[in-house]
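Hi all, long-time lurker, first post. I run a small reading group and we've been trying to get comfortable going from sequence to structure in the token notation. Rather than ask abstract questions, I figured I'd post a concrete chain and ask someone more experienced to write out its structure so we can walk through it together at our next meeting. Sequence below, copied exactly:
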Amino acid sequence: MIELVSLCKRYDHETAVENLTLHVERGELLVLLGGSGSGKTTSLKMINRLVEPSSGRVEIGGRDTRELPGHELRRRIGYCFQQVGLFPHMSVAENVAVTPRLLGWEAERIARRVDALLELMQLEPAAFRDRRPDQLSGGQQQRVGLARAFAAEPEVVLLDEPFGALDPLTRDHLQRSFQHIRRQLGLTAIFVTHDMNEALLLGDRIAVLHHGRLAQVGTPADLLQHPADDYVRELMTTPRRHAEAMDRFLAARAGDEGSY
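-- Answer (accepted) --
Happy to help. Here is the structure in token form:
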């Protein structure tokens, strides 16, 4: 469905992404995982040509993305990011409807799609359709951002740390809701995160980037059991350390309570 072939991005004397080759199957969620400066967001933006590659190519559905004008390509791809970017002067319904309106959908079709997506996001249309973004919580705004990314019935969705700014409970709920919705809609997705736990929870496969290069790609089990190098091994030990620390804390807490 999505092919990245020898993709590179250079800025003057600095290389942000070097020779990235990846394949994403139809209906798959691929996580791009790595630290700050690893090339995750640059790679994501090259797919919809918000950033133009220095070399290499991107294909979606067997078609080179350079064959389409950038704005037309982006209207075919859902895009969601951490800052959400809802238009403050527009209602929730108007925000969700932005791309379908640009594509010339009829008003009745747009209204049906908006209400269906709000229902899917557990936002009652009658209660939320006419609200402004400043009348929503952070989690509600992120749900509207997801609905907007899905609005034009894209086959491909790109997500750049969409839940990173949320509190842990809201983040957990939206992660689970997103997985259900993605599978229900049959979407192919690339999801950028620096959070190892999020990558393990959401990814069908994980591509680890390090200093702009692909360190390893595989299923969560592949990476946990067979890390390709020390960097991937260190990433994979982080969730284990957290789990072990929690186990020690709970055991100590139980011991303290039992001493009374």
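A couple of things your group might point at:
The first helix runs from residue 40 to 47.
The chain is about 45% helix and 25% strand.
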